[in-house]
Amino acid sequence: MGWYAPDAAQGYFQQLPKVDLHRHLEGTLRVNTLVEIAHQQSITLPVSADALHAQVQIQPDEPLNSTVFLSKFQTLRQFYQTPEIIARVTREAIEDARTDGVRYLELRFTPLALARVRGFSLSEVMDWVCESAATASRDFDLPTRLIVSVNRHESVEIATQVAELALQRMERGIVALDLAGNEADFCALPFLEVFQAAHRGGLKVTVHAGEWGGPGNVREAIEVFQADRIGHGVRVMEDRAVAALARERQTVFEVCVTSNFQSGVVPTLKAHPIQRMLAEGLNVTVNTDDPSISQITLSDEYRVAAEVFGLSRAALTGLILAAARASFLNEVEKTGLIRRLAQEIDAAVG
User: Fold this and answer.
1) Is residue 1 situated within a structural domain?
2) For the domain that residue 217 is a member of, what is the CATH number?
3) How many other CB atoms are found less than 10 A from the CB of residue 268?
4) Any catalytic annotation for residue 248?
5) What pLDDT does residue 6 have?
């Protein structure tokens, strides 16, 4: 590539200090851990790593579309059997991020998905994740904040309850509320009052939009929901007026390249619009989405940015610092993170 040695590429990208703003806990579970849980809890599933691997991770011979991608979660939802399991997978997600060179993580989770299989209360589940994340953050020296997700294809009543519980746990690491779920078939507007109340209470707002739905959803997230960040948002490029709005507002896009390819949002990696988004002056960050399902790390995503899209070392540095600036840390913490990243990047590329 010219600015790094190809035979040492993986080590280079892993060494590079990084920030991940869009990583779902439910898509981050280790397959070996799932095998252990299946044995311990007598879950009726393939209990060899190879067999389970096919059920919870994208395979090379599978169709790349949203139906197949989302089907992986149907299997994963069966594993949240005990408080100890929920705490363990939270801890392992943070450990794995730190091993990959992540220096700041915003880990999002869907309380209803964790609570449903055993009928746990939403408050219990949120407490378990908060406690485990706080401990792991200290143990692995990886500052971690939590984003709570609700789905637009589920009820407003559940979203209201989750938002209220999140507001009560802001001092325990919860920083934002996320609207996720099926944006192609379900409208976001019924959830507007929930998100407005959460924002008034001090939570930041991020909205999945412009992934499986069109650019109109991005406009709605920006203008109506006043979103601080957009999850994915890559279809913004289908409407020049919406792209101009995003550029004017400097709305942050949480881009997840491999996920967008595997879920059928773009037909090929090369067709991903990240280059055009950057050329248009949009505020882009690079993230993983569901690293276990996609069988990737954040280092892999930065390598794709360099090798597939030809981004320079300076451009990658810009993406990392853009993610730090877009974090939901307070200003003092954010300034410290940016300073630490700049120093480590200088050392890594020196």
Assistant:
1) no
2) 3.20.20.140
3) 9
4) no
5) 54
